[in-house]
């Protein structure tokens, strides 16, 4: 059962030089309790999509079309994009929470981490006593691997990994159904990265929330995700199970991303990467936006814009994997 249904969502950044089409006609489903990975190069529209879903965009960004339907377990539903200010305030944190990319910037530097958890509880659960809120804050910090006595610490007194854990604790305060994690392990060393990923999986199993996990590191998503969506130039170009994406990528861009990180086993190979650079979103090339960088492009690719047919947006025939990337 889906908990979130994104349909034909488009976002533009308006400027004097013309509109930047950051997200174009994206449709995605998030199933209840799953981890959906969202991957792509910088500028592909991942964070803009997440901010649009959470209604966190500010001018000059504007949602130009689409819907984001949230479905509750009792069968009721609502379009997040149609919520008024009061309804949106109640929706955030309680139903959907966000863990931002840089915890040092996301956390309030002049407030302790315990006080920041207390703020969420005090506003959204006014019936809770002060002692109950303090106990809940201590419980949440301990659950993400931080000693309860650190709730009186300020963000600058915590390490990068601990700050990220504190941000996750705040997101969990009201037991939301959906948590959007926007590159939560960026700038962390690989050991701390692995600890954070293990913690996210364990928390998902315990609380049952669904996760949208955003990163440019496709190898990271292979480890944590149930399904993966690949974005390029503001569009979703491929979706599928993590194993299927790894072993049988169907879009040339996905294959390029897979070839951009080293294998841990087998003979040494040269990293190929993807030639060229991402396109200017103000003036996309005609047809498939990836065709100027694609080694498998056909003549039709420069004139026909492929739709996401099933699970891939590519004009290559056959519906088979381009090449075994395992």
From TrEMBL:
Annotated signal sequence range: none
InterPro entries to which the protein is assigned, alphabetical: AAA+_ATPase, ABC_Ni/Peptide_Import, ABC_transporter-like_ATP-bd, ABC_transporter-like_CS, Oligopep_ABC_C, P-loop_NTPase
A molecular-function term among this protein's GO annotations: ATP hydrolysis activity
Protein localization: Cell membrane
CDD domains on file: ABC_NikE_OppD_transporters (cd03257)
Superkingdom classification of source: Bacteria
Assigned protein family: Belongs to the ABC transporter superfamily.
Name of the protein this chain belongs to: ATP-binding cassette domain-containing protein
Organism for this UniProt entry: Nonomuraea phyllanthi
């Amino acid at each position: 059962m889906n908990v979130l249904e994104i349909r034909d969502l488009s976002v533009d950044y308006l400027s004097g030089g013309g509109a930047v089409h950051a997200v174009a006609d994206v449709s995605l489903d998030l199933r209840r309790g799953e981890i959906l990975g969202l991957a792509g190069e910088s500028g592909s529209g991942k964070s803009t999509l997440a901010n649009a879903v959470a209604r966190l965009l500010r001018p000059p960004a504007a949602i130009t079309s689409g819907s984001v339907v949230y479905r509750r377990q009792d069968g009721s539903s609502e379009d997040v994009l149609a919520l008024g200010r009061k309804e949106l305030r109640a929706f955030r944190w309680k139903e959907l929470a966000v863990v931002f990319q840089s915890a040092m910037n996301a956390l309030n530097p002049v407030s302790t981490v315990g006080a920041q958890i207390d703020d969420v509880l005090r506003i959204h659960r006014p019936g809770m006593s002060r002692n109950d809120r303090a106990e809940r804050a201590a419980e949440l910090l301990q659950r993400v691997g931080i000693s309860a006595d650190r709730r009186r610490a300020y963000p600058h007194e915590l390490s990068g990994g601990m700050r990220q854990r504190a941000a996750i604790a705040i997101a969990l305060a009201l037991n939301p159904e959906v948590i959007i994690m926007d590159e939560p392990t960026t700038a962390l060393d690989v050991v701390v990265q692995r600890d954070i990923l293990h913690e996210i999986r364990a928390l998902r199993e315990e609380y049952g929330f669904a996760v949208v996990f955003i990163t440019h590191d496709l190898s990271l998503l292979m480890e944590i995700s149930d399904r993966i969506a690949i974005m390029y130039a503001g569009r979703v170009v491929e979706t599928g199970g993590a194993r299927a994406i790894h072993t049988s990528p169907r879009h040339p861009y996905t294959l390029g991303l897979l070839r951009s990180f080293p294998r841990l086993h087998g003979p040494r190979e040269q990293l190929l990467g993807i030639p060229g650079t991402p396109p200017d979103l103000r003036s996309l090339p005609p047809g498939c936006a990836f065709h100027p960088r694609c080694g498998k492009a056909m003549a039709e690719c420069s004139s026909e814009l492929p739709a996401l047919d099933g699970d891939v947006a590519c004009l290559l025939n056959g519906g088979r994997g381009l090449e075994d990337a395992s």
